[in-house]
Amino acid sequence: DQQVKQNSPSLSVQEGRISILNCDYTNSMFDYFLWYKKYPAEGPTFLISISSIKDKNEDGRFTVFLNKSAKHLSLHIVPSQPGDSAVYFCAVYGGSQGNLIFGKGTKLSVKP
Amino acid sequence: GAGVSQSPSNKVTEKGKDVELRCDPISGHTALYWYRQRLGQGLEFLIYFQGNSAPDKSGLPSDRFSAERTGESVSTLTIQRTQQEDSAVYLCASSPQGVSNTGELFFGEGSRLTVL
User: Fold this and answer.
1) Measured distance CA(A91)–CA(B91) in Å, rounded
2) Is the dihedral of CA A42, A47, A52, A56 positive or negative?
3) Which residue of chain B has the CA closest to A44?
4) Could you tell me the mean pLDDT of each successive run of 10 residues in chain A, 112 residues long?
5) Less CB within 10 Å around the terminal CB: N or C of chain B?
6) Three-class SS of residue B86?
């Protein structure tokens, strides 16, 4: 039973426009919510995170929004750039677990 | 080293053989994780080491899988009697003290295992 769901396996966006990646989770006990980015043949790299006590965290072109009542997390990238093309993983942490739980990922393609 | 180092980067083996995958974490990182990513899937947690505590083995898929860590350094993941469904990229990650409040884990580039 998936605790973290990324229902869109892929997303295509024009350069300069906004990319919105979505993630749903099942357990209201999670404390932290994260986004990782992965290029082919490389390990995932941390992008941005948000604590459960906040509803928004911004870092440059990247903003993460948390809607706890809906158990929904989203990542906004604006403006999108071709170099943003990668697989984005949503991850959660907290409760009794010491590890991150990842979603299946969304492949973002930003077209010039 | 500057980052998490994994070896081999690629391994092709025959069904039924044993394989060992190695991870060198970032120096000083007390926490070490193994994940795997099968084709078209997300990152699946396998095992977690934190300092001298007993490892969290709750993600290991079968008793054919085991992992060891020497102190706070190198870790090896061993898969015995490999099966085709073990084919995946095995990713190692480390962090200074488990998952901090930023949640940042530092991943290696992975070891791609192909079982024929």
Assistant:
1) 15
2) negative
3) B107
4) 89 97 92 93 93 95 97 97 97 79 95 94
5) N
6) helix
Sign of the dihedral through C-alpha A9, B33, A28, A73: negative
Structure tokens, A30: 């999670």
CA–CA min distance A3, chain B (Å):
12
Q: Are A35 and A89 in contact (CB under 8 A)?
A: yes
The answer to whether A102 contacts B35, with C-beta atoms less than 8 Å apart, is yes
**What is the predicted pLDDT for the residue at A49?**
93
CB contact under 8 Å between B91 and A44, yes or no, is yes
Q: What's the Cα-to-Cα distance from B69 to each of A22, A33, A78, B111, rounded to whole Å?
A: 36, 28, 42, 17
Alpha carbons A37 and A62: distance in angstroms, whole number: 12
- Candidates A84, A86, A73, A79; CA nearest to A32 is A73
Q: Measure in Å the smallest separation between the Cα of A75 and chain B Cα atoms.
A: 16
Query: How far is A98 from chain B, CA to nearest CA, in Å?
Result: 7
Does B43 contact A at CB distance below 8 Å?
yes
Q: Check CB contact of B89 with chain A, cutoff 8 Å.
A: no
Reported confidence tier of residue B100, pLDDT bands at 50, 70, 90: low
**CB neighbours of residue A7 within 10 Å:** 10
**Helix or strand or coil: residue A97?**
coil
Q: Is A105 on the interface with B (CB under 8 A)?
A: yes
Partners of A47 on chain B (C-beta within 8 Å) are none
